[in-house]
Amino acid sequence: MEALRIPILRINDTLITSIQAELHDASAVQFKDDLLERIHTTRAQGVVIDLTAVEVVDSFIGRLISDIGAMCGLMGARVVLTGLQPAVAITLVELGLELPRVYTALNLEKGLALLKAPPEGAGDEQP
Amino acid sequence: MPPTPSPAPAPQLQINGVDHQSNLPMRQEAIEAFPFPLTIYTCDGLFVGANDLIEQLFQVPKSAVIGTFNLLTDPLAQDERTNALFQAALAGKRAQSPPIIYDFSYPRTRTSERASCWIETTYFPFSDAAGRVTHVGSIIQDVTERVMAEQAQQQRESELRLTRFALDRASDSFLWIDSSSKIVYANDKACEQLGYTHAELLEMRITDLDPIVPAHSWGAIWDSLKRERNQRFETVHRRKDGADIPVEVTSTYLEFEGHEFACTFSRDISDRQRAEEERVALQEQVIAAQGAALRELSTPLIPITDAVVAMPLIGSIDSSRAQLVLETLLTGVAERQASITIIDITGVPVVDTQVANALIRAAQAVKLLGARVILTGIRPEVAQTLVNLGVDLSGILTRGTLQGGIAEALGQQSERSAHGRR
Question: Of the four listed, A57, B90, B246, B281, which is most buried by Cβ atoms within 10 Å?
Answer without folding.
Answer: A57
